[in-house]
Design brief:
Layout lengths: L8 E5 L4 H12 L3 E6 L2 H13 L3 E6 L5 H15 L4 E4 L15 H27 L5 E5 L3 H4 L5 H20 L6 E6 L6 H6 L11 H8 L13 E3 L4 E3 L6
Parallel strand pairs: 1-2, 1-4, 2-3, 4-5, 5-6, 6-7
Antiparallel strand pairs: 7-8
Helix pairs in contact: 1-2, 1-8, 3-4, 4-6
Bound molecules: NADP nicotinamide-adenine-dinucleotide phosphate.
Length: 246
């Protein structure tokens, strides 16, 4: 396999399982050095083992993305060690409660907004200077169709993804004249723990795997990817301007 991402530094959030894990592995296979963020040490170590088996390299960062000071410290450490990052994949997310809005307690609301929105805002603040040091900084954030569909009984999640999409579009506009390209990726239904928790009656074997979806995130992280402020819809394999059809 050719190594189009050799020596690129790629920060991937939510890399302990699911889409983030698969994306980290797929980027590492192309030669990127992975900075893998999540809380679950076991999942990160398993990822590290797999990446090493493939001949790649990873730095493990056990961190809760609710810790905004921790994200700032990570930015400082990456600056110290590498002087830049080339790729940011803002993938980590939680589904939150499946309830009508009136039954959602404030803590659950705050948790979803904190991880799905505020953490990505803090990542943008802390990683933009490092991405600007790259000759071709690339950022991809993972959203959901729930944002545009305003899915009933997934209120905090749908709201958080709508906010994420606007956040990312703003950043794409602000960085349009720089070397940074910023885009969204909508995976659709993918066989992960999150999907199973929200749709427990669904047969997971009917869904695409995280590995299949990750193959479509990889090109959005490459230096030759030129689009910015766009939305890649995995299910329809379409790159579109915002907002996708429901
Ligand atoms: N699967 C789908 O069908 C689907 C559809 C649309 C959109 N998405 C989006 O795809 C992304 C990945 O979801 P997934 O399906 O792969 O879910 P998943 O298997 O549940 O993985 C979620 C990842 O996010 C990390 N995470 C959660 N809370 C965190 C925190 N506080 N700090 C750091 N990391 C945290 C988890 O790591 P730890 O628990 O180890 O911290 C895990 O690595 C999410 O943004 C989700 O909204 C998924």
């Amino acid at each position: 396999m050719t190594q189009p991402l050799t020596s690129r530094i790629a920060l991937v959030t939510g890399a302990s399982r699911g889409i983030g894990y698969a994306t980290a592995r797929a980027l590492a296979k192309r030669g990127a050095h992975i900075v893998a963020v999540a809380r679950t040490q076991g999942g990160l170590e398993e990822l590290d083992d797999e990446i090493r088996k493939d001949g790649g390299q990873a730095t493990l960062v056990p961190l809760s993305l609710t810790d905004c000071d921790g994200i700032a410290r990570l930015g400082a450490a990456l600056h110290e060690r590498h002087g830049k990052i080339d790729i940011l994949v803002g993938n980590a997310g939680i589904a939150g409660p499946s309830s009508p809005l009136g039954h959602v307690d404030l803590k659950s609301w705050n948790d979803v907004l904190s991880i799905n929105v505020t953490a990505n805002f803090q990542l943008i603040r802390c990683m933009e200077p490092l991405l600007k040091k790259s000759d071709a900084g690339r950022a991809v954030f993972v959203t959901s169709g729930a944002a545009n569909k305003a899915t009933a009984y997934l209120g905090p999640y749908a709201t958080s993804k709508a906010a994420l999409e606007t956040l990312v579009r703003v950043w794409a506009n602000e960085t349009a004249s720089t070397n940074i390209r910023v885009n969204l990726f909508n995976p659709g239904p993918i066989r992960t723990r999150m999907r199973a928790s929200v749709f427990p009656g669904e047969d997971p074997m009917t869904l695409d795997t995280p590995e299949q979806a990750a193959e479509f995130i990889v090109p959005m992280c490459a230096a030759d990817w030129t689009e910015t402020g766009k939305f890649y819809d995995y299910k329809t394999r379409t790159l579109m301007s915002f907002h996708p059809p429901t």
